[in-house]
Amino acid sequence: MEKFFKMSDRGSSAGQEVRAGFTTFLAMAYIIAVNPGLMALAGVPITAAVTATCLGAGVMTILMGLFANRPLACASGMGVNAVVAFTLTQLTGGDWHASMSVIFIEGIAILILVLCGLREAIMDAIPVSLRHAISVGLGLFIAMIGLHDGGIIVANTDTMVALGDVYSPAFLVGLISIVATVILYAADVKGSLLIGIIIAVIAGIPLGVTTLPTGIVSGLDFSSFAAPFQTDATGVMGIAKVVTTPVLLVFAFSLMMSDFFDTMGTAMAVGKQGKFLNDDGSVENIKEILIVDSAAAAVGGFVGASSITTFVESASGAADGGRTGLTSVVTGVLFLVAAFFAPLIAIVSSAATCGALVMVGYLMMTDVVDIDWSDFLEGFPAFMIIAGVPLTYSISNGIGLGFISYVIVACLTRQLKKVKPLMWVATAAFIVYFLIV
User: Fold this and answer.
1) Torsion sign, CA atoms 282, 287, 289, 294
2) Model-level pTM?
3) Phi, psi of 320 (to 5 degrees)
4) 18 pLDDT more than 90
5) In sequence order, which residues have a C-beta less than 8 Å from that of residue 286 and are 6 or more positions away?
6) N or C end of the chain, less CB within 10 A?
7) CA-CA distance, 273 to 269, in Å (whole number)?
């Protein structure tokens, strides 16, 4: 195991990796309850959606650990699953098989781009300042997700966002999660993020936030597997419907753009915490990471779980000491186990993970000092990414705003030579993306 994962070379140990794997899993466990609910709205049988969510996440996370040997975990991506439930299913006339076919085709297309080297080449073309900005923007995004899940911040029609109800049970659990995590981290307690989550889960029991399970064991349902090749009531395969419908192919392109840059940002963010980010902001083993992530999207469509992607919550495990793929293997195995014990795992509320995500957000802010704010060409596009990611609630949208800003400022300041050819390509793709989404 040591020879394969190289734990000692990266300053880690088996115990540290296992602990980090548990931290990542608990930070992501909410997906076991949330994704099946959204997939059910799209028409996927709920029991099949639970099986697809758990097994899809488990298998692809284990493959990430074995193939890329980095502490990254995969699961059905939030945002895309909502698009599948509320938008894509409408376009397919309620045929969830066709909806999953769009995801499947998008995954295959992005995998081809990775194998051709285009996805990695675009990452290499990103200016160093923007790479640091992506990490900072992701930190704010993660913290925002944590604060929202903990009820600390809420939506407000007048002010866009506001402080939550300080007397609400979710707010109290979120606050307990933050305080416990900060105290443990300040005391240099190993596994502070994991312990903080556990404390918050326990505190949530009397407050009614942690709901006791109605059962323990759940069966498996594979009826959603091979979704693109299943037929609707008229006998038409889902994938055949997509390839003959231009609007669905355009939709696949927009999802591909989102997936393309979401993973880029996530890999940089987790790389910062897991110490596999180089000084120039490039990610070690990025090709292996992108290959697994791209294949995961296609697998998500195949099994009926929506697009499976690298989760930004992986940064919580990396911040808790995860340095190798063993962290991912542990997380993946826990997802496989969860397929049989979904009711029990679902007791981990999103509020309980608030502290871990806020702490990760704090740790990722350190990259802000590496941005040259005195240089307008470097500073302004970086600012657009940092502000854009959390404020649009989208990694890809924030990156797109930064890319477009960089090209515009380069034109205005007569520094076009600094814009690499693939930055022009990516910027043009983002313009098209913003016009069709």
Assistant:
1) positive
2) 0.81
3) -95, 15
4) yes
5) 120, 123, 267
6) N
7) 7
